[in-house]
Design a protein that fits this description.
It contains nine helices and three strands; from the N terminus they run H-H-H-E-E-E-H-H-H-H-H-H. A three-stranded antiparallel beta sheet has the order 1-2-3. Strand 1 and strand 2 form a beta hairpin. It starts with 15 loop residues before the first helix and ends with a helix.
Length: 192
């Protein structure tokens, strides 16, 4: 029996402008729009995996700091949201409280856990609406997070901890794959 290989696409981190357009495509006039904006902002600005984001409970959030209780490999870690992302998340949490919705932070309007399949369908739809040609998926927002930190020259060990990687080499490979700038610069600098 032949082993089937899953088609692998190159990473396409979104730019800051593209993510903002994605957020705008959610709208802002309904509770669902507020929730979806908050989820996208959290995935993008905290670098969470979709399973990590959907598992965040209200007790895991304090002063813009998110505690990931069960990351990949059942590891815990702490990440933080920047003030802009906190504002977006707070708008959803206030709406959720007004409606009396319990459950995880990112829940349905009945307080039930959201399904990752909902997010997998939502992001490409929003990307089309926003005119974004790149593939848009939850892990791509994690890529965008890592790429932007690398572009800001954040120490690779900080990026490693934020992503929850156990190995610095994994993080370096991740960043090199997302932003092969050293290779590009070296090749462009060559002369005849």
């Amino acid at each position: 029996m032949k082993k089937k290989f899953k088609k692998k696409y190159p990473p396409e981190p979104l730019t800051r402008d593209e993510v903002r357009r994605l957020l705008d495509a959610c709208g802002s006039d309904s509770s669902i729009a507020l929730r979806n904006r908050a989820l996208i902002a959290t995935l993008w600005r905290a670098g969470l995996r979709i399973s990590e984001a959907l598992a965040v409970e209200p007790r895991d959030l304090e002063d813009g700091v998110l505690r990931v209780r069960r990351g990949k490999g059942s590891k815990c870690r702490v990440v933080a949201l920047d003030p802009e992302a906190v504002v977006v998340l707070q708008a959803w949490l206030e709406s959720k409280a007004r409606l009396g919705i319990g459950g995880p932070i990112f829940s349905t309007l009945r307080g039930e856990p959201m399904l990752s399949s909902y997010v997998r369908n939502l992001l490409p739809r929003l990307a089309r609406k926003a005119g974004i040609a790149k593939r848009c998926h939850a892990h791509g927002l994690r890529h965008s997070f890592a790429a932007s930190l690398a572009d800001e020259r954040v120490d690779v060990r900080v990026i490693q901890r934020a992503l929850g990687h156990s190995s610095l080499q994994v993080t370096q490979n991740y960043i090199d794959h997302l932003r092969p700038q050293a290779v590009i610069d070296a090749l462009k600098a060559r002369t005849w």
